Amino acid sequence: MKTVYTCFCTDYIHEGHLNIIKEAQKLGEVTVGVLSDEQMIKYNSFPLKSTAERVKMCKKIPGVANVIVQKEIMYDKVIQELRPDYIVHGDNWESESMQAIRQNILETTNKYGGRLIDIPYSYNENIARIQKQMKEKLSIPELRRGRLRKLLKLAPIVKACEVHNGLTGLIVEKTVVADGGAIDQFDAMWISSLCDSTAKGKPDIELVEMTSRFRTVDDVMEVTTKPIIFDGDTGGFIEHFVYNVRSLERMGVSAVIIEDKTGLKKNSLFGNDVVQTQDTIEHFCQKIKAGKEAQLSEDFMIIARIESLILERGMDDALERAYAFRDAGADGIMIHSRKTNPDEIFEFCDKFRKTDKKTPIVVVPSSYNTVTETELISHGANIVIYANQLLRAAFPAMENAAKSILRNHRAYEIDNALMPIKQIITLIDEI
Ligand code: SPV
Ligand code: MG
After folding, report:
1. Which domains occur in the chain, in start order?
2. To test ligand 1's pocket by mutation, which of 164, 197, 204, 274 has the most ligand atoms within 8 angstroms of CB?
3. What is the pLDDT of residues 132-185, one digit of tens each?
4. Catalytic residue IDs
């Protein structure tokens, strides 16, 4: 009997999947691959069901003989192992990542004579409704909040990118790349105080009030599903911080990061060029403890950010604070640096990891931007935040457009650099 293989990366079996199995059955004995959680997060949206639950779900489909876990999104390994006569897939190969997968399948099947069969992709109102419901589920605050903790277990490093409105949220939500046979996307979003303030034309000095910052969170939340890490600046007065923890939790934010500074906060990348006051260990520990006591859910995280390297107080001070903040209940440590190389970050991570193997370490390579994610992983970092790149990309592009219009007294010359009107009016999904 001929053998057939197909891979499902879905939380829910609808008639489209059943149709694929029906067609596959006509060709031979059907094996379904269930894409692992680790790969789902790179390729698709966050799985609502675990790998084990999805395996169970696929085993129940009539006509399925075997179910296995596909550990990589690219099919070559699994196909080489199973050497199926046919690989069956829906014919919806539109995106860059789908094209890369198709190419990978064809290259592998060509080696031993297997065949890829494209089944017309089923799409109807019922399937559209189910997909919408799945998306809604992903964005429910209760389900969204815990996703950062889950990601910390699944991803070698959680990649967060700055967002400061719905549009940048959509970019981080939807951008998927397929390079060199690998598919990747961001895992989480960072609501940066710098970018949230800059987008409003204000300095990053805790001037933009919390109500407005929460409005940004809400705008992002409305159109995305990825977990959100909120830049809480200094956290303000302890008496205010506890209320803000509750609000963030209720909104479905996954984590707040607060920095151990006090008084008028300035952006860290100024370093000692401006007056900045570091908080005492005792007081900042009180703030962390109060925040942890105030939070209602288990899954919300309060991450303590250490400014000792920024303010040139030395590595020992940074480490002393890291242990103290962890002991006060911080769910993670963010270590910041404004050096142009990652040496002091590596040193901090290596020393901290000697005695603490599990407290998540967060890094923000804005100035030491040559560092790679692989290097950060090898030093024990768990979350990398690309803190301001989208805003910095937008500013020169917009300024350039403004200058071109002024110079040419018309908009024609800049048009090639702009998103086509057709694309912009269809960019936002209709509800
Ligand atoms: C931010 O993005 O607002 C940050 C990181 O706090 S930094 O600007 O580097 O201080
Ligand atoms: Mg900030």
Report:
1. 3-128 (3.40.50.620), 141-387 (3.20.20.60), 393-425 (no CATH)
2. 204
3. 888 888 889 999 999 999 999 999 999 999 999 999 999 999 999 988 778 899
4. 204
